[in-house]
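User: Hey, my collaborator sent me this sequence without any context and asked if I could get a structure. I don't really work with proteins. Can you help?
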Amino acid sequence: MSEIKIDWKGHAKKYQAAMEELNLDFCVLTRLKSITYLTGAFVPWKSAIFLPKEGEGEPILFTVLLDVERVKYESQAKLEVQPWGPMKGFYWEKKIKAAAKKAGAYKPKGSPPRIGVELGLDICITGATLQYTEAELLKKAFPGCTFVDFNEKTERIQFIKEPEEIAMLRKASEITDVGQAVVKKTLKERALEKVFTENEIAGIGTLAMRKAGSNYEWTFTGNEEIGSGYRASWTFNGCTPATNKEVKEGESLLVDLHSESGCYLGDLSHNYVLGKCPPELKAFNDVFEQLSYTLIDNMKPGVTFDECYQEVHKVADKAGFGNDLFFGIGHGIGCIGNESWPLVLPGKEWGQLVFEENMVEIAAVVFNRPGLGGLRLESPTLVTSKGAEVLPKTRFEVDYI
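Assistant: No problem. I've predicted the 3D structure and written it out in structure-token form, which is a compact way to encode the shape of the chain:
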């Protein structure tokens, strides 16, 4: 257990304050980021939290019955955990209805309740917004109920990090630094005697991080993402689950490692070239390094996402690689399940959002040209009043082994 003390019960109070603003009777929260934020536990199964108004009872987590005892034991919030399953006596909607009645949040002969739910479409499979079938079951359990979208509140509550959360993210980043250091050391020591596959490199990084305290390779994109050669350089390539492909001399090798500590996440991508590097790839790599530092220089309070993107894109465009830079240059990070919002993108949907003090964002550069090379920066970055602080210590520069 971590020595850093997260106020898990305080998280529930933040949600309940938002519930009061929306005049809700109770919430049924399904997003993984909410479940982690309110339980302080790893909850991998389809689950939901019943959250009453403040003063009307405690939150209840409903998770698949085969995992109840572990979650109950490991929950840092020490909240009540109840089982659900597709069988008589364990139906999801009936469990929630009973909890609402017990809390006094639902009276069958009273006014239909206003229920906070998390709607929308998340790019991540772990988003776990309310499904159609779940919505229909809730409507049946609570006739005439009104659904109120709580998702915007969820995002905003978790957007600005508490000091203890920043400390946990810093610790998770220290673990990914260890993973990258051991990968680099192993590549150097064994470069002349061994051909590496992407899967072997993934295993080297994973073992090192597990030894350093990581409990979970959190990403749904294939645990550690290792891409080399053509697998690193597809257009706009942001997903490289490791394979048994051998890493060749003189080609791009990106190593994207993921850690977890105390339910908070680390995400660190670093780039290598083994053996002799072709001059044209070296020039491409040099531009990538400029892009990375330009991004960090522009992650300052008050700067819009659009302004930040434009400054980074100018560097790529000036070097003749404007079309090789992916337009997304950042994504969220936090507790388990919090790995997308906000996305640093230009345009009217996202471009007007601004960097704010105490947000932690993955600074991300995806820079690929098929047939030449592919590089990725992902590094958790804290926005401070003085600018951006990159949490991992691994440098941005490409390592030539």
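In plain terms: Residues 163-190 form the longest helix (28 residues). You can pass these tokens on to your collaborator as they are.
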